[in-house]
Specification:
This protein has 408 residues and is an alpha/beta fold. The protein has three domains: 216 residues, HUPs (Rossmann fold); 84 residues, Tyrosyl-Transfer RNA Synthetase (Orthogonal Bundle), CATH 1.10.240; 73 residues, Structural Genomics Hypothetical 15.5 Kd Protein In mrcA-pckA Intergenic Region, Chain A (Roll). Helix content is 47%, strand content 13%. It contains 17 helices and 13 strands. It is globular. The protein binds one RNA strand of 82 nucleotides through helix 14, helix 15 and helix 17.
Length: 408
RNA sequence: GGGGAGGUUCCCGAGCGGUCAAAGGGGUCAGACUGUAAAUCUGAUGGCUCAGCCUUCACAGGUUCGAAUCCUGUUCUCCCCA
């Protein structure tokens, strides 16, 4: 019976799943050999992937390896998700230009739950082995940690590009940061990883895993690196730049975000975040960029929220952005009569929560960005009186509210 | 342990004791334009009871009519020497 087998698919399908969108597979021939054997013996490979709960939310950049894990999981491989509660406290220096604050156990614990919940949006957690690395690192004790540190030299560590850059730029590098690659590498030993997935910035850490596994007489893991995608505007994806799309974002947020993606980035996003075939992707990219991008948004938002919600979000985008019409549902707020029957426009906008300060309101008003029932007002001091009926108040293109008369 | 250089507004970074809410760039916001909330161009960008007032330049004191700029102490970072 075919379905009594744990591994599904042909060697070619397995190789393709590993290779799709991968930047590097080290070593490719090693992977093939191990796959042949795995398939022959129907013995799933252990695919390691680590996530540090260092910030509370995952974005689409994080989802890239998750999608690959999902593919591999569906072929029957065993995904081992390491929730790096110990490593998170150290902080991954990869791609870091700054020393970052050490997280406390409490902060890490708080992020931990949201992390697995978010990973579950892509992965089948029923078929995922989830382990926390604090388990073994806590047990290791001082002596164990000391032993671990003897496995690499400072010269080997400092070879790393991020350390190089920071050192030559005169920026601080914490000693704790040297621990990070060793810890991540040791995780591979603990879970006996056959393959480890990681972003290209993880190259060094992944290599340390191979080294430690060899030292422990394990077969060194195959490394598969996935590209790091930039944010929507081409800069590094980061929540603080406001250029990321979160895994928990609504269909609307995903769609509106993806529609402003740089055109040039579309090819990579299609390949990494959708499972459309490569010929189809090529076809889409030949067509109008807007059409292609709309499809990308539909695919991604559809994956997380279903076709219907994605289609609705696409409609909303067309209506509000392309056709510059008002959103379907506009928040309403009532006139606050405790402030009297009239209010200076700048203050009113702040009261309504449309701006953060009256100064910001003044700026928006003076620059012609504020409309009262469609009419532009440019005097921040003009006294607005309580409306008789619903009034549409707009600040810029994005902020809209209905102002209603005070409760009778 | 010794010596030197630094910590400036969201970020980077300039800043003769008064003319500094503090150059410039990035980001952000607003306007124009656009297939797009992209790109490009223009303007704005601490707060407020806004032609004036209040709070900012690591922290705490001090000198001075007056300090981001001078002094003292504290703290953090980097570099060189040991």
């Amino acid at each position: 019976m075919a379905n009594s087998k744990r591994l599904k698919g042909t060697l070619g399908e397995h190789m393709a799943a590993f290779q799709r969108g991968a930047v590097e597979v080290i070593e490719e021939r090693e992977l093939e050999k191990r796959l042949v054997r795995a398939l022959a013996e129907d013995e799933p490979m252990r695919i390691k992937f680590g996530m540090d709960p260092s910030s509370p939310d995952l974005h689409l950049g994080h989802a890239i390896p998750l999608f690959k894990l999902r593919d591999l999981q569906r072929l029957g491989h065993q995904v081992v998700l390491i929730v790096g509660d110990a490593t998170a406290m150290v902080g991954d220096p990869s791609g870091r230009s700054m020393l970052r604050p050490v997280l406390t156990r409490e902060q890490v614990a708080a992020n931990l739950e949201t992390y697995t919940a978010q990973a579950a949006l892509v992965l089948d957690l029923e078929r995922t082995e989830i382990v926390r690395n604090a388990g073994w690192f806590d047990r290791m004790g001082f002596e164990g940690i000391l032993q671990l540190t003897t496995r690499m030299t400072v010269a080997q560590m400092v070879e790393r590009d991020t350390f190089q850059k920071r050192l030559s730029a005169g920026e601080p590098v914490g000693i704790n940061e040297f621990l990070y690659p060793l810890m991540q590498g040791w995780d591979s030993v603990e879970v006996r990883a056959d393959v480890e997935l990681g972003g290209t910035d993880q190259l060094f850490n992944l290599l340390v895993g191979r080294r430690l596994q060899e030292q422990e007489s394990q077969r060194p893991q195959v490394m598969v690196t996935t590209p790091l995608v930039n944010g929507l505007d081409g800069r590094k994806m980061s929540k603080s730049y406001g250029n990321s799309v979160g895994l928990t974002d609504s269909a609307r947020e995903m769609t509106f975000g993806l529609m402003r993606l740089d055109d040039e980035a579309m090819a990579v996003w299609f390949l990494q975040l959708t499972r459309l075939g490569e010929p189809e992707i090529a076809e889409l990219l030949k067509g109008h960029p807007r059409t292609a991008k709309a499809r990308l948004a539909l695919e991604v938002a559809g994956f997380f929220h279903g076709e219907k919600a994605a289609a609705e979000a696409a409609e909303a985008f067309n209506r509000e952005v392309r056709d510059k019409e008002l959103p379907a549902d506009i928040p309403e707020i009532r006139w606050d009569s405790s402030l009297g029957s009239t209010r200076a426009l700048a203050n009113l906008l702040k009261d309504m929560g449309l701006v953060q300060s009256t100064s910001e309101a003044r700026r928006a008003i003076e620059q012609g960005g504020v409309r009262w029932n469609g009419e532009v007002h440019t005097d921040p001091r003009s006294e607005m009186s309580e409306p008789k009926e619903r009034v549409l108040v707009q600040v810029g293109k994005k902020r809209v509210m209905h102002l209603l008369p005070a409760e009778a």
